[in-house]
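Researcher: Structure prediction, please.
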Amino acid sequence: MRVEESIEVGRPPEAVWDVVSDPSNDPRWCPKVRSVTADGPHRWTVVHRPVPLRPPLALTLERVEAEPPSRLRLREEDETAVFAVEYRLEPTATGTRFTQTSDFEWKRLPRWLQRLFARGVRRDVRAQLRALKDEVERAPAGQPQGMS
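Model: Predicted structure follows.
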């Protein structure tokens, strides 16, 4: 399955890249992320906030490819799914067009539930992009993103 969403961010690609290329920033712009721990070069463990009746979910995050400040490819895997995620950053007249594409396969989810859960993935990605826009635009121009 595939989910692709875009948003316009009122900052240059380098400012957006500074946030999205460092997984330790994920709790600031990914509403579901509770924590991120480095496990080695280009590899992290990400813990998602618990959902009702479920414990927190841990996933493995790997950086597959990086072309600063225009493209980042990641691989995410947890007990339920494998995601191939790509971030594309394109300069625009007013900032950056940020696009997230997530191709994913469910591991154990019954086929009849897959479309329903895919809608949840789309909803989560949209919320994530709105939070990214808010996070990046909140920092004064020229200020390092970690200082907001």
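Model: The two ends are 35 Å apart (CA to CA).
Researcher: Thanks, that helps.
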